[in-house]
From TrEMBL:
This is SAM-dependent methyltransferase. The lineage of its organism: Bacteria, Bacillati, Actinomycetota, Actinomycetes, Micrococcales. Pfam families: DUF7782, MTS. GO terms for molecular function: N-methyltransferase activity; nucleic acid binding; protein methyltransferase activity; S-adenosylmethionine-dependent methyltransferase activity. Belongs to the eukaryotic/archaeal PrmC-related family. Coiled coil: none annotated. InterPro entries: DNA_methylase_N6_adenine_CS, DUF7782, Euk-Arch_PrmC-MTase, SAM-dependent_MTases_sf, Small_mtfrase_dom. It comes from the Bacteria. One of its GO terms (cellular component) is eRF1 methyltransferase complex. The keyword Transcription regulation does not apply. GO terms for biological process: methylation. The keyword Transferase applies.
Length: 439
């Protein structure tokens, strides 16, 4: 059953107000966006913030559209699918976005109030293809699979001690980063073949590299091992992390409550050996069909672990389309050996530019760099042969023929040059600088 509208409930009386006065019960804001399907706007309700309340947030606070919400909606791959799951929907913003490319959306949350507000937001904006369910993590969708899972889970690492608020919108009630681990490990059982899960998360650094721990989360039987593309965007020390999330709950610095909570956070991190906390994006994908021998080790076919703290490129409609193109390029070239790749024709992506530096009076550049205008805004240093290859990738000449011509111009061995350049070509395909031929 769908949660009832908030209008059905009696508003609590505020004794501070006179008979002719009213006070808002929720925050109502306009929300405008541009995605792969075009421009749009909605009305979004959430709970009142600390400035309107005049005190710290309650533990059942339902957050509106914040920075993390905008980040995840921009990452959302817009490919049309039959079914999508918004795990931990909050005010419902991700479910609304998913409803633009999915025929059917299921939105879950452990908070009954969050589901009430999310259902209200769907009704306010005339969105009718979302079903709301109450429950923790994957419990409400036991036995079901989806083409697309989106989750901005309550990933904030919170001390499990008395006196520390556990805000439902950000705290999953588990120790450390176990909540994010649970989402990652549970995704395989709820994705259709070829289905994609996208989530945000925090992960802890102990004495080892956090990426080693994340890789361990992906270990599973061969038939359910997921592809993974994990991008770390930020790392914070325990002190900065504690300050960020104590302040997020509305507790002001230089107060006894702030100092008490700050001490609790640092004590927890020290007791568990946490040195840093990472934040980033996780893209998981269930392979299509059997691709490994039963006795083969469960190693994902796609496993990209990257640290990209730099600013993203210009992506006015979000970066989801870029992610989809990179996955498609990876899949295309994964089935090609070097000979087949050499016979292929490639083109340079439309957002790619080349920068050259010259000493005054010199004909040859001293520095060449390839820049990506959109996507992750990557930059790649070039040498003469690589620059010549990319400059000739116009979709007409095969890669191998271009390399052979460059070898003649540089008086180089063609086979050796091919062995040097083809791995770079694969990397440029993976990163979206080069595009495979149209299907």
């Amino acid at each position: 059953a769908q949660p009832g509208p908030l209008a059905d409930r009696a508003a609590p009386a505020d004794p501070a107000l006179g008979p002719a006065q009213v006070a808002p019960l929720v925050d109502l804001r306009p929300y405008s966006f541009v995605d792969a399907h075009g421009a749009g706007s909605w009305w979004i309700t959430s709970d009142l913030g600390e400035l309107a309340l005049g005190h710290p947030l309650g533990e059942n606070h339902v957050l509106g559209v914040g920075g993390a919400s905008l980040t995840l909606s921009a990452l959302m791959i817009p490919t049309a699918v039959d079914s999508a799951l918004d795990l931990g929907t909050g005010c419902g913003i991700q479910a609304l976005h998913a409803a633009r490319h999915a025929t059917r959306v299921v939105a879950t949350d452990i908070s009954e109030r969050a589901l009430e507000l999310a259902a209200l937001n769907a009704r306010l904006n005339g969105v009718e293809n979302i079903e709301f369910r109450l429950g923790s993590l994957f419990d409400p969708v036991a036995g079901e699979r989806f083409d697309h899972i989106i989750s901005n889970p309550p990933f904030v690492i919170t001390p499990r001690v008395e006196g520390v608020p556990s805000y439902e919108y950000r705290d999953g009630g588990l120790v450390g980063d176990a909540l994010v681990e649970a989402v990652v490990r549970g995704a395989a059982d709820h994705l259709t073949p070829g289905g994609v899960a996208q989530l945000l998360g925090n992960w802890e650094y102990h004495d080892d590299d956090a990426f080693d721990r994340l890789t361990g989360w992906l270990e599973s039987p061969a038939e359910t091992a997921l592809d993974a593309w994990i991008i770390e965007r930020e790392v914070q020390p325990p002190t900065g992390y504690a300050e960020t999330w104590i302040r997020d709950g509305g507790t002001r610095p230089d107060t006894p409550d702030f100092d008490r909570l700050y001490g609790a956070w640092l004590d927890d991190f020290e007791a568990r050996g946490v040195r840093q906390v990472g934040f980033g994006y996780m893209l998981l994908r269930r392979p299509t069909g059997a691709r490994r021998r039963p006795a083969a080790p469960a190693r994902p076919r796609l496993l990209r672990l990257e640290r990209l703290p730099e600013a993203l490129g210009h992506n006015p409609a979000g970066i989801g389309h870029h992610l989809a193109e990179c996955l498609a390029a990876h899949d295309w070239q994964a089935g090609l050996d070097d000979d087949a790749l050499s016979r292929s024709t490639l083109t340079v992506a439309s957002d790619v530019t080349e920068e050259r530096h010259f000493w005054p009076g010199q004909e040859d550049p001293t520095l060449m760099t390839l820049h990506q205008g959109g996507g992750f805004g990557r930059s790649v240093p070039l040498d003469t042969a690589q620059a010549a290859l990319i400059g000739a990738c116009d979709g007409e000449l095969p890669v191998g023929a271009i390399i052979d011509a460059i070898a003649q111009l540089l008086d180089a061995d063609a086979a050796a040059l091919r062995a040097e350049l083809l791995p770079r070509v694969r990397g440029l395909l993976d990163d979206g600088f080069l595009e495979p031929p149209a299907a």
